[in-house]
Write a structure and sequence with these properties.
By secondary structure, the protein is of the alpha+beta class. 19% of the residues lie in helices and 14% in strands. The chain contains four helices and five strands. The radius of gyration is 26 Å and the shape is elongated.
Length: 182
């Protein structure tokens, strides 16, 4: 007998099932509505900046949209927004001069800070630290705003349009509205 054909001396009490081969399903990238393209002015419907008109800069890999106010016009910084919470208008801005290639989903990830585990730290419950905007974010915002403001100023009355809040009154029927302004 060879070593490979030798019978084992130990027999398990239960029959061990062989592990099944698992396959990782590759997710397709999320689709972005065809009405939302880079340069489209969209209206935010939810969140802190609801009712604001912002410019869509690009679609990120996660399917979220990268938008900016510009910050100088309506106070909306570079943000990620789910496309389900925006209304696309037919107003377009030329964003070919705006460089957002360095901004991706990791850009918005939070910095990990070390947490102390233990009973003392749990009961002390230090106050939450205020969010501090990093210098890199401020520099990126100014760089994007400079290029975006140049494109916005080229279109007549677009700056006032972006600064205006979108609201509905009791007589408005949003399902009948066409969002093709300017």
């Amino acid at each position: 007998m060879t070593a490979a054909a030798k019978t084992p001396r130990y027999y398990p009490a239960e029959d061990v099932k062989p592990a099944k081969a698992t396959y990782k399903v590759k997710q397709n990238p999320p689709r972005v509505r065809k009405s939302i393209t880079p340069g489209t002015v969209v209206i935010l419907l939810a969140g802190r900046f609801r009712g604001k008109r912002v410019v869509c800069l690009k679609a990120l890999e996660s399917g979220l949209l990268l938008v900016s106010g510009p910050y100088k016009i309506n106070g909306v910084p570079l943000r990620r927004v789910n496309q389900a919470y925006v209304i696309a208008t037919s107003t377009k801005v030329d964003v070919s001069g705006v460089d957002v290639s360095s901004i991706n989903d990791e850009y918005f990830s939070r910095a990990k800070d070390e947490k102390k585990e233990g009973e003392e730290e749990f009961f002390l419950g230090d106050a939450p630290k205020p969010a501090v905007v990093s210098d890199q974010r401020k520099a990126d915002q100014q760089k994007v705003d400079a290029a975006l403001l140049k494109a916005v100023s080229a279109v007549d009355m677009l700056e006032a349009y972006l600064a205006a809040q979108f609201t509905l009154t009791s007589g408005d029927k949003p399902h009948l509205m066409k969002f093709n302004n300017l």
